[in-house]
């Protein structure tokens, strides 16, 4: 009988949603739509932004060969960059199976900048985060 009570308490604890909040980003729970839905079966809460260490690399027509590193938490990096708000902005968010140094990524950045007059922001997380954990990192 004791084992039944322990199991019940464990299941009740697992059934209650947990929540984590990050300044500037808001709060996330382990309930849908964050996790436990088709296509996003990962359970758990997102890692803190500092652990994810998200990087933003800016490519424009003025700098197609060399990116400029910008930060949403440091607006001066955006002001000092070649970013132009009046141009369409496209984001490339790389997957978990490859790095940002793959040739097709830089080629896509150059093509979009040269032919589409767009601003391209390449977004990626640092390699020190576990590859299968939920990520939040702005």
Automatic annotation (TrEMBL):
It catalyses: a triacylglycerol + H2O = a diacylglycerol + a fatty acid + H(+). Keywords: Disulfide bond, Lipid degradation, Lipid metabolism, Secreted, Signal. One of its GO terms (cellular component) is extracellular space. The keyword Signal applies. Transmembrane segments: none annotated. The keyword Secreted applies. Residues 19-111 form the Lipase domain. Residues 1-17 form the signal peptide. One of its GO terms (molecular function) is lipoprotein lipase activity. GO terms for biological process: lipid catabolic process. Belongs to the AB hydrolase superfamily. Lipase family. This is Triacylglycerol lipase. It comes from Anser brachyrhynchus (Pink-footed goose).
